[in-house]
Design brief:
The protein is about 20% helix and about 15% strand. The protein has about 725 residues and is α+β, with helices and mostly antiparallel strands. The protein has a domain at about 660-730. Strand 7 (about 125-130) and strand 8 (about 140-145) form a beta hairpin. Helix 11 (about 630-660) packs parallel to helix 13 (about 705-730). It starts with 7 loop residues before the first strand and ends with a helix. The structure holds a DNA duplex (12 and 13 nucleotides). This is CRC domain-containing protein.
Length: about 725
DNA sequence: GAGTTTGAAACT
DNA sequence: CAGTTTCAAACTC
């Protein structure tokens, strides 16, 4: 479905991994899929251009359930003029971006380009890197696009970064039996296909394009190269942060895209960095596995002239800067703007002012339809040294049943630790934590994910202003990692993070109850440490000599790299989908149990509540479907769970009954404390008798034990009520 | 809470 | 890749 006014490029493609996402001329992007749960701003799609106000949607595609699309990447905006050199410089090749890697079809790229002689209209060239049909070498395919409206939508970006002010739709024909697929390139250059957000390369705006500032998306040293936006996928599961060794490795050196001869995979790094991962000799865009819908969208980002708060970590040579929303609103609002994710794609829009205005109004859809809007000074000086935009980290999770509660937005941005950064920092997303460029881990920083909620919790609900003030002085230990606050999220370490973390309670802030680690020797920098394995900072843990925090960021980064060197999949979820889909989870690596029969939590499969599979190398496994031992355990577990639930319910009921009563003894007129003074031995005895009678009655009715318990407890509640009533009557003389 | 068991991770 | 060691969680008492 070509967007109105957009050019259409038809691509014949054999691969059918794509569905369609259609953008509009307004720059909004709408996922063309019924499954899309766009909870807000979806109506914005199709909005025509306006000279007064333009909308640019920056978002990732919503995963499309029921499609085969697995990979949802990150829109990457690259200066087309640099594309070739980028490839050359990296010594690698980039071929598969939109999966346009077909080599034998002259129709590979049927371009229907608007007349370039569209006088007065800016002509923008987009470049898609694809495989050269004849040489199989990567090449940049420029696609000219003209703005049908002849309007300038985008102010100038930092040199090299551009936004194509209109959407281009690429229709893919996936072979004879495959339906036509559409790939749409949104106005930000986000190439999306079926929930996949794919790399788009765009040329710097040509003459006539009005500069705009945008969310900083550029490497510090080469401030225009890469934009990374959250990865998403269709699976309802949420999975741990994906660490990419190659990316990390590269990132530790140069902020460049990691590319491979055949594919670029946009992934997340350990620190939540959305990044790219190599994958060789594969023709399809690889899935970032099992990221829940909640993770699939770009977190709402509000550009604002936020207050910048520099955080000087004692003993650290880093200067951290974080943004705090200048809004005098509520904590919730700040939290929303900072860390909240949206379940479905909620397109954020950038509303550009009049041409040449250097203000951009960013409207960001928030969960629940709430919009947070703020104005931002958008001039992004070319001298800015922001190296990379690290967009929201995806929380770690491997439980398919995990609800998609908001996960924290985490952002990592290296910045120079000089005062000159203030201006550019003004565009940072609230909550961002910045690393100085001087760091040899520049390009990475650790973002205080969820810190707002944490602070709210720790500080017993401070106001926003307090939040802001205190944030600046918070020690790094208060910054937690990029992991999710999802109460049910479990992290990468599969088994250990199975369901009932911290007893299954959910923190008051809604943050996931994270089980504190107790590491003593690993400094929490090895995979032994669950926090580390989950891509999280230690926080409120019991570990000794912990280095899994901001204060040891370099060390931590090295450790991550080391882990990835050993095992590139080290930070991948251990539990993946089995052959039969989401409902058949499977331990990717399999367990290796010898003595536990795979029926204890030592076993990662068992702990993850999945059965052992052919991948397992366990001995004496009893964790299979027909295992009587397993069934027995399951029944026991179920019974226990029911019992706990009933007890909880009974407690709750009792509490509600008691809620109307004085919480502490009220002094009576004569100094007595009623009704408590009435609980004499006789009263207690009578109460016991009532309870016994109730127990007998329950037994006579042959109620299940749990029901009997409940009956007795309820009887006890009634007794108490009677006692209290009697006390009150006595007190009142009635 | 201390000690033991267990299996993944790390190491050789 | 296999064997061994280290480690921290799970478990037992």
């Amino acid at each position: 479905m070509p967007a109105k006014g957009s050019d259409t490029t038809t691509v014949k493609q054999e691969d059918d991994t794509s569905t369609s996402i259609v953008g509009t001329t307004a720059g909004t992007t709408q996922v063309n899929n019924n499954n899309v749960n766009s909870n807000n701003l979806s109506s914005a799609a199709g909005e025509p251009f306006s000279l007064i106000e333009k909308k640019v949607v920056t978002k990732t595609a919503v995963p499309l359930s029921g499609t085969s699309v697995k990979s949802v990447g990150t829109p990457i905006i690259v200066d087309a003029s640099d594309a070739s050199s980028l490839l050359a410089n990296t010594g690698q090749t980039l071929t598969n971006i939109v999966d346009l890697t077909h080599t034998n079809d002259k129709q590979f790229l049927k371009r229907q380009i608007s007349p370039s002689g569209n006088s007065g209209n800016p002509v923008i060239t987009k470049v898609i890197i694809k495989k050269n049909p004849s040489t199989s070498q990567p090449q940049a395919v420029p696609v000219q696009m003209s703005n049908a409206q002849g309007q300038t939508l985008f102010a100038s970006l930092p040199s090299g970064i551009s936004i194509v002010p209109q959407v281009q739709t690429v229709t893919q024909t996936s072979g004879i039996n495959s339906p036509t697929k559409t790939v749409t390139i949104s106005s930000q250059g986000v190439v999306s296909s079926g929930g996949k957000t794919i790399l788009a390369l765009q040329k710097t705006p040509t003459k006539g394009i009005v500069p705009i500032n945008k969310i900083p998306i550029s490497p510090i040293k080469t401030p225009t190269k890469v934009t990374m936006i959250p990865v998403s996928a269709k699976s309802p599961q949420r999975y741990p942060t994906v660490y990419s060794s190659s990316v990390l490795s590269n990132s530790l050196k140069q902020p460049v895209i990691t590319m491979s001869p055949s594919k670029v995979i946009i992934k997340q790094t350990p620190t939540g960095v959305v990044s790219l991962q190599q994958k060789v000799q594969t023709s399809t865009v690889k899935t970032v596995p099992n990221i829940a819908p909640a993770q699939q969208s770009i977190r709402p980002v509000t550009l604002s002239t936020s207050n910048l708060q520099q955080i000087q970590v004692p003993g650290s040579r880093f200067t951290y800067v974080r943004l705090v929303s200048p809004s005098p609103g509520t904590v919730n609002k700040v939290t929303t703007a900072t860390v909240q994710s949206v379940r479905s794609i909620a397109p954020a829009s950038v509303q550009a002012g009049q041409n040449n205005s250097n203000q951009v109004k960013i409207t960001l859809p928030m969960q629940g339809g709430q919009l947070v809007t703020s104005k931002a000074v958008t001039s992004l000086p070319n001298t800015q040294t922001i190296q990379r935009i690290l967009l929201p980290a995806q929380p770690n999770q491997n439980r398919s049943t995990a609800p998609t509660t908001p996960s924290p937005l985490t952002q990592i941005r290296p910045v120079p630790s000089t005062s000159s950064t203030s201006q550019s920092l003004s565009q940072l997303i609230p909550g961002a934590t910045l690393l100085p460029t001087g760091s040899n881990i520049q390009g990475y920083a650790l973002v205080p994910a969820n810190y707002v909620a944490q602070m709210a919790q720790q500080q017993k609900g401070p106001s926003v202003s307090n939040l802001s003030a205190t944030t600046a002085q918070r020690p790094p230990s208060d910054f937690i990692n990029i992991a999710s606050s999802d109460p049910t999220i479990t992290a990468n370490a599969v088994a250990r993070n199975a369901p009932n973390l911290n007893g299954g309670t959910i923190e008051a802030t809604g943050a996931r109850p994270r089980k504190p680690c107790n590491c003593t020797k690993s400094q929490c920098l090895k995979l032994y440490c669950d926090c580390f394995a989950n891509g999280e900072f230690c926080h409120n843990c019991n570990c000794l000599n912990c280095a899994n925090n901001l204060e040891h960021e370099e060390e931590r980064s090295r450790a991550i790299k080391s882990c990835l060197d050993r095992n590139p999949m080290a930070f991948h979820p251990k539990i993946g989908k089995g052959k039969h889909g989401v409902n058949h989870r499977k331990h990717n690596k399999g367990c290796n149990c010898k003595r536990s029969g795979c029926l204890k939590n030592y076993c990662e499969c068992y702990e993850a509540k999945i059965m052992c599979s052919s991948s397992c190398k366990c001995i004496g496994c009893k964790n299979f479907e027909e295992s009587p031992e397993r069934k027995t355990l399951m029944h026991l577990a179920d019974a226990a769970e029911v019992r706990v639930q009933q007890q909880t319910a009974a407690k709750s009921k009792f509490s509600s009954q008691m809620s109307g009563l004085p919480s502490k003894p009220l002094p009576s007129s004569n100094g007595e404390r009623l009704p408590y003074t009435l609980i004499t031995a006789e009263v207690a005895e009578a109460t016991c008798a009532c309870l016994l009678a109730q127990a007998e009655e329950a037994e006579r009715l042959k109620m299940p034990p749990v029901v009997q318990e409940r009956m007795i407890i309820e009887e006890f509640g009634r007794c108490l009520m009677q006692i209290i009533e009697s006390a009150n009557k006595t007190k009142d003389g009635t």
